[in-house]
Amino acid sequence: MEQREFLEQSVEQYGKAAYNFAYRLTQNEADASDLTQEAFIRVFRSWQSFKPGTSFNSWIYRIITNLYRDELRRRKGRYHDEILETDEPHSGSGRPLAVQPIEEYIDGYLSEPVSKALAGLTAEQRQIVLLADIEELSYQEIGEIVGCSVGTVRSRLHRARTQLRKLVNFYMKSSS
Amino acid sequence: MIERHPTSEQLLEYLHRELPAPQDAAVHAHLAECASCAQAYEAEASLSDLLRAHARSQERELPHRVVMAIRSATDRPVPPPFWESFRNALRPMIAVPATAAIAAALYFGFSAWHSAADATTINAAEYVNNHAALTASSPFSEDPPVPAVLTSESGNATR
Asked: What three-state secondary structure class fits B157?
């Protein structure tokens, strides 16, 4: 298969999933668009390193995760290697700089507590929860994407979900 | 049914289908019997359901401008890395003198080797004489036989 054809096929088949993953991760359209674009440019450049038979989703998610991590570090965002243990929601800490348009806010109004709770997680916590519960990847795949062992995925996921549950309850109570 | 209640980590692994088959079966059997564990499991499962429902409600199409931006960016030739550019720039500066040096070494080395070798000297006159002697004595020679000249002791030649 030719390089251009590989890119076109991968954008067609996985572009939407990659964009949605990037959107859930960054929580805004501008950053999600940039991440998706850059990720597929990387796919184009290193297309020969993709092994047929392996999961393309895992590959593109890994690229997006790494790009997002680099971007947060570049912006000196609050990306932590360790999970924060506090129960208090941190005010927009994991949320990058772009502003969410009002239309999106209205669209997501019904799931506002969940949106806020996800935004209240650290970037690393959000990553792991998204990969496990929304993308439904195995712990092994998550470990490969995030760059840690299965045991670490297990413990981080448990703590992230505990934190998420507390945040969801907090925002549900405050919205009611 | 397992004796001890599964931990919350085990319930989470059960939810994500990460437990080995025997443990998975044991937790499954335990949940059918234990109301408190079943409730804890339902709480975990409902959080996952909530997240998936939220994701579905937020799902969006890949914007066309992103596709166009990807195509536009990949249409441009990628500039080579700095080291490669530097190496390419150096290539003629290195390759030309190196080729000249190799050519010169080959030429002068060969000449020196050739002159140093013991050249076999050939005495051409010997070959000419031998040839003349052979043709003279050969019965198939087209040259007329050289008449033998006999000399007497007195010095008078007789044919």
From this structure: strand
